[in-house]
């Protein structure tokens, strides 16, 4: 609903409809050492080589960084076997999602995304003056037919988080292709693959090949999750020359920090560290649901580095009560009420001892 600002200043239409993004909690009063499993950074933290590269950069802080992120794009290109001319880097993938919306949608246009998807899509749509349209999911997963049936003459952008945060579900290669085949060529499909590195499922497609054959597909990636460099704010996107050219025209000239670029390059080159992060994650994706089976909490199947936990309705055992109980133990999971999932909490997969602590605490909560 449109609100009114006090005073004389008026922002652009639709801006006041935006509910500012509220991230997960970071601290709990009375607890010095909280166990924060709420923002989906890889449990093992960043590569030590990335930290060294970051520290080494300290002597260059007075200088502007190289503006096109050439060295980082070149490393991304080599590691992923994709063309560096079709990559743009950004201050986190958030920045790129916002730039894409600003460049390709405006007043009178519609921006589509699924019901329980990343909150930034709605914010980015409204900020560009467009109408955000949330499309119902089926069993907490994007439904290709429902997306296709929601396309109108005004649709300009479809955001698809694959895998999706916070549900952990994903569209297979063939479903993704079917979606693209059924959208008009003047609609941009943004495949947000922030958690791609964690996905080991054989039917998952990072969508690079789709980008290479389609002008209207752009893929976004981030160094915040699997590489655990969230604080440095580095992301990138891969798209057709037309899309990349447009983003390059509107991005800030020095939108990625020098330290962020150097650390990201080192992280990309440390494939052993990434493999260790993926291995630990895969272990807990499988093990955690077993640990808490029979408690009455259900785990949504996930291919990311987080699991959506669904709690019973009972007032003593619901997600609110669980959140409070976990806080009392110094444990923070992500409240996902703003994602329309008030009966759930999202758990970021952590280190072995952290996962054991959470499992024990949840079992105790359900027994209490
Ligand atoms: C699906 C998804 N996309 C994008 C992002 C943004 O990540 P960043 O801006 O740190 O690259 C997140 C972060 O939570 C996310 O969950």
Present the secondary structure layout:
Layout: E1 35-37, H1 48-56, H2 70-80, E2 87-90, H3 92-104, E3 110-114, H4 120-127, E4 131-135, H5 144-150, E5 155-161, H6 173-181, E6 188-192, H7 208-213, E7 217-222, E8 235-239, H8 241-250, H9 258-269, H10 271-291, E9 298-299, E10 306-310, H11 319-328, E11 331-335, E12 344-348, H12 352-367
Parallel strand pairs: 1-11, 3-4, 3-5, 5-6, 6-7
Antiparallel strand pairs: 2-8, 7-8, 9-10, 10-12, 11-12
Helix pairs in contact: 1-9, 2-9, 3-4, 3-8, 5-6
**CATH homologous superfamily designation of the largest domain:** Type I PLP-dependent aspartate aminotransferase-like (Major domain)
- Give the count of helical stretches: 12
For the biggest β-sheet, the strand order reads 2-8-7-6-5-3-4
% residues in beta strands: 15-25%
Number of strands: 12
CATH class of the largest domain: Alpha Beta
Name the overall outline: globular
Shape-level CATH architecture of the largest domain: 3-Layer(aba) Sandwich
List low-confidence stretches. Answer: none
Radius of gyration: 21 Å
Mean pLDDT: 96
Label the structural class: alpha/beta
